[in-house]
Amino acid sequence: MSMTKIQTVNLVSNAANIEFTAIPNTYKDLYILLNIRSTTSGADREEMRMTFNGSSSGYSRSRGYAYDGGTFSGDAATGLSYIAVGSMPAANRNSNVFGPNELYIFSYAESKPKAIHGRYVANSDSSATYVIGFGHYGWSDNSPITSIRFVGAANSIASGSTATLYGIR
Amino acid sequence: MSEKLQKVIVNCETGVTEYIDLTDEEIAEVRAREAQSEIEMQAKEAELAAKAAAKASAEAKLAALGLTPEEIAALR
Predict the structure, then answer these.
(1) Which residues of chain A have a CB within 8 Å of the CB of B6?
(2) Residue numbers in A near B39 (CB within 8 A)
(3) CA distances, A25 to each of A33, A168, B11, B18, B65 (Å)
(4) Cβ B6–A14 below 8 Å, yes or no?
(5) Collapsing DSSP states into helix, strand and coil, what is residue A34?
(6) Which of A92, A115, B58, B76 stands the most exposed, by the fewest C-beta atoms within 10 Å?
(7) Interface contact flag, A16 B33, Cβ < 8 Å
(8) Interface test with B, best of A14, A39, A82, A145 (most B CBs within 10 A)
(9) Which of A5, A156, A162 to mutate to test the interface with B (most CBs of B within 10 A)?
(10) How far from B21 is each of A43, B5, B59, CA to CA, in Å?
């Protein structure tokens, strides 16, 4: 297996969303590494969402996460309009705290439904506000993935956040 | 969110990254997400408050039955 960096972005200002477009179909799988932070000040963290090809249908999830002092929760759902792939530390967290999030997309260029694995951490500096999670996701669409968009639940992705897309052969 | 809203497009074919102002339609989508997020946050807070109240009520009833704090803690 070999991994090639396709593109990376380091935000120089806040962004409502980040989107990788014109993704080449020459790899077997995709790997995405995010190190992100939200502009929200109304909570300790904010949900990060992902969609493919501008589509808002056909997503599913099975996930688990520990948070806020040790509570564990999890759920499964289908018929979703996006995938909630993780959580971003909020603007009121320590300024150097970003949330790592990694995603692996299998057979993205094939004409069949897609499978994704992911895991993430946010607010690892605080036992009271942290969240550590993992998930297995699906997209029932048969279209090859040519674009991937990341967006917060309500607020922008903060300046200094990074997103890197790798191709796997 | 009073700052100018932009989206970031990373074109993997050209290698060009662009910061583009959101259209009015895209701004409306952001505002709708903000409103929905506020609704969900309030619902979550209400759910947590209800759970905490039910837990306190259950513990008070157990104490009234004669259970010690240690025995109540052992049931958690």
Answers:
(1) 13-16
(2) none
(3) 19, 11, 14, 22, 67
(4) yes
(5) strand
(6) B76
(7) no
(8) A14
(9) A156
(10) 26, 6, 54
Preferred mutation among B12, B33, B48 to probe A, highest tally of A CBs within 10 A: B12
A139: pLDDT strictly greater than 60? yes
- Determine the residue of chain B that is closest to A14 in CA distance: B6
Structure tokens given for B56:
């306190």
A113-117 average pLDDT score: 98
Distance CA A53, CA A22 (A): 10
Query: Could you tell me which of B2, B29, B17, B20 has the C-alpha nearest to residue A56?
Result: B29
Cα atoms found within 13 Å of the Cα of residue B66, Cβ hemisphere only = 0
Q: pLDDT (tens digit, 9 = 90+) per residue, A14-70?
A: 999 999 999 999 999 999 999 999 998 888 899 999 999 999 999 999 999 999 888
Which residues of chain B does A21 touch, with a Cβ-Cβ cutoff of 8 Å?
Answer: 9-13
Give the pLDDT score at A64: 96
Contact B7 A22 (CB under 8 A): no
Alpha helices in chain A (DSSP H): none
Structure confidence at residue B1 (pLDDT): 45
ipTM of model over 0.95:
no
Q: Which amino acid is at A99?
A: G
Mean pLDDT score across all residues of chain A: 94
State which residues of chain B have pLDDT below 50: 1
